[in-house]
Amino acid sequence: MAKKRVKAIVKIQIPAGAATPAPPVGTALGPHGVAIMDFCKAYNAATEAQRGTIVPVEITIFEDRSFTFITKTPPTPVLIRDAVGIAKGATSPGKDQAGVLTQEQLTAIAETKLPDLNANDLDAARLQVAGTARSMGIKVAD
Q1: Fewer CB near the terminus (10 Å): N or C of the chain?
Q2: Would you call 25 exposed, middle or buried from its count of C-beta atoms within 10 A (0-12, 13-18, 19+)?
Q3: pLDDT (mean) for 55-79
Q4: In sequence order, which residues have a C-beta less than 8 Å from that of residue 128 and are 6 or more positions away?
């Protein structure tokens, strides 16, 4: 059997379990001729357990207009905001402090994100998550 030829790879971030044909899904997939409702149904079924969070998805579109998709872990800032319990980071990250991230929370987020990070081990992942927290104006507790 011949391999299908890839036409495009599309990356978008959609709320889990709540994909609709409206933008950003429709505008991202429409030009490629993908059946948008088929994607929405498959994505919503795959992410129903994570409802309420943003889940990035990488959609591979083939020349025959079929598709496959891979869901990724939620973005690091979303996980940090949920752990700290805030709606957004500090308005002036270098001066203001929006919250405090404990070492336990830092480790839990790093373990969650490890498959999607370009880190070799948990310590490197923890450093990346801590850097993201600092850039959001969130203090990382010692």
Answers
A1: N
A2: buried
A3: 89
A4: 76, 110, 113, 117, 119
User: pLDDT, tens digit, for every residue of 6-64?
Assistant: 888 899 998 888 888 888 888 888 888 888 888 888 988 888 888 888 889 999 999 88
Cα(72)–Cα(78) distance, integer angstroms: 13
The distance between the two most distant Cα atoms of the chain, rounded to a whole number of Å, is 60
Contacts 24+ apart (CB under 8 A), 85-89: 86/138, 89/135, 89/136, 89/137, 89/138
pLDDT of residue 82: 86
**Spatial distance between the Cα atoms of 106 and 48, rounded to a whole number of angstroms:** 25
CA distances to 22, 105, 109, 134 from 93, rounded to whole Å, are 34, 20, 20, 7
What gap in Å lies between CA 130 and CA 45, rounded to an integer? Answer: 32
